Structure of ATP synthase F(0) complex subunit e, mitochondrial:
Amino acid sequence: MSLPYGPPVKVSPFIRAARYALLVAGIFYGISKQMLYNSLEASWRREEAERQKKRDIENAKLRAKIAAEEREVVRQMESGELFKPGRI
């Protein structure tokens, strides 16, 4: 059986060595970039955790303020102060 394009051509040893050298260089490049991105991601996660703590504190204060206002409105409704004429 013959191949449609003829027999395969022998690849030069220089080209073969260059391919493997570039493959190894690409692997090392990828490893170095991955380490860089990991360190950047770790610092971003630390900063995001600090921001989340601040947001949680602010949200807790806001929830407490809203709850106090709601308690006051319920107290006014129960006592009838909220519906007195001339209030609005």
